Every structure is written in structure tokens, then in C-alpha cells.
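Field log, afternoon session.

UNIT: design team B
ACTIVITY: writing a sequence onto a fixed backbone
BACKBONE:
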């Protein structure tokens, strides 16, 4: 009884390998797009190179200090604490106080964690507030818990309502990272699987072409 012929066509392995390579290229292209998207939405205009307010901020002050700003009505503002990137992350000795034009404290608000690092300066959110009526708001900043830990620290105040694209862009970037990761794994698996399959088919084809006694299998049995 003769053995059935071994499949030696390499069309399937070639298709799998090429498809895997295309998936890998797509992952690289999407990865570049994700990086560019993330860089484009970074709120770099909030904090200046000296840790003070950038062009997109409402204002800023030294720590400790007091700052008065004219803020919009019914808006959410974030207070950032900036400091040198090479210094330990500082902590305030107490909470920031924001007093509205009516003499009452502004209402606290919820907000996403926000961190900015640029030009040797880092900043992180320490307070979110919701304004009521428009007008002058006084921000009182307490001293640092450990003033000797950092050479300087400042606060920066910015309107959160002006940054919806940042939060949407971050969410899109995170989704893009997962997509790139998944495509990368799938592409590598397809390329490796296709290459192994291709090599196996190629060896089988050479063995059959050689015939019995020349590297192939004699009809009716396995091996010499």
C-alpha cells in the first residue's frame, strides 16, 4: 500500500507570510500615527520653560503666594504645581484655597490626572475647581511641606474647558497603543508561522523531487 503524496505547494505559506508582513507594516504605520497624535495633543502651552504660566494658561504664582485672576463663569479650572524635573516631586503643606468674587470658596471639581513635562520642568494637577459667577478669584497657595527638597515651585492655573482635545487625544492614543500591540503580535505570529510552513513544504517538495533512495521516501514505507 503506497503512502499518499505529501503536499508541497507553497502558495498557502506564501500568502500567510506576506499577509503577516502587511499586518506588521500596518502596525508600524499606525504606531507612527499614534505617536504623532499624542504629541499633537500634549498641553505644552500650559507651563513655560521657567515653570510659570504658558500661553494657554490663565496665570500663575510662586509657592507660597497669592494670585488673583479674572475667571469665566461656570467653568472648570485646574491648578498645577510646577517644579524642576530633576528634583523630587514636592508636596504642599496644605490645600490650595480659591475664593470667589462673593468671598466664598469655589466648589471643588473632579478632573482627570494631568501631568506635563517639558524643557526640564514638570507639573501635575493639585486642585480642580468649579467657578460660579465670573469675576476676580483669589488663589492662596501654602508653603511646600519640605521647601529644602526643591529649589523652586510655582502654580499654574488653566481652564479645563479649553482642553477637551487633550483628554480625547489621550484616550485615542491609549486605544491606538492596544491596536498596535495586537497587530504586532498577530503579524509576527503570521510571519513566523508562514515561514515555518513554507520551509516545511519546500523540504517536502525537494524530497519528493529527489525520489526514493535520494532523500525521498520509497513507496509503501517510511524511511530507508
Amino acid at each position: 500500500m503506497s503512502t499518499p503524496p505529501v503536499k508541497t505547494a507553497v502558495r498557502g505559506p506564501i500568502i500567510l507570510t506576506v499577509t503577516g508582513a502587511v499586518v506588521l507594516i500596518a502596525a508600524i504605520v499606525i504606531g507612527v500615527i499614534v505617536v504623532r497624535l499624542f504629541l499633537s495633543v500634549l498641553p505644552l502651552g500650559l507651563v513655560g520653560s521657567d515653570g510659570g504660566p504658558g500661553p494657554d494658561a490663565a496665570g500663575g504664582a510662586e509657592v507660597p503666594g497669592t494670585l488673583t485672576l479674572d475667571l469665566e463663569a461656570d467653568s472648570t479650572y485646574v491648578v498645577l504645581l510646577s517644579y524642576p524635573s530633576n528634583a523630587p516631586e514636592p508636596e504642599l503643606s496644605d490645600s490650595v484655597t480659591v475664593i470667589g468674587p462673593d468671598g466664598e470658596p469655589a466648589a471643588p471639581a473632579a478632573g482627570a490626572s494631568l501631568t506635563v513635562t517639558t524643557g526640564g520642568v514638570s507639573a501635575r494637577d493639585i486642585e480642580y475647581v468649579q467657578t460660579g459667577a465670573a469675576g476676580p478669584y483669589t488663589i492662596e497657595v501654602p508653603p511646600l511641606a519640605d521647601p529644602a527638597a526643591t529649589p523652586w515651585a510655582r502654580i499654574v492655573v488653566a481652564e479645563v474647558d479649553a482642553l477637551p482635545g487633550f483628554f480625547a487625544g489621550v484616550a485615542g492614543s491609549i486605544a491606538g497603543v492596544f491596536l498596535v500591540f495586537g497587530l504586532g503580535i498577530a503579524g509576527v505570529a503570521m510571519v513566523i508561522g508562514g515561514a515555518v510552513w513554507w520551509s516545511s513544504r519546500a523540504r517536502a517538495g525537494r524530497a519528493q523531487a529527489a525520489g526514493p533512495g535520494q532523500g525521498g521516501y520509497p513507496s509503501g514505507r517510511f524511511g530507508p
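LOG NOTE: The helical segments are 11-41, 164-210.
NEXT ACTIVITY: expression trials, pending approval
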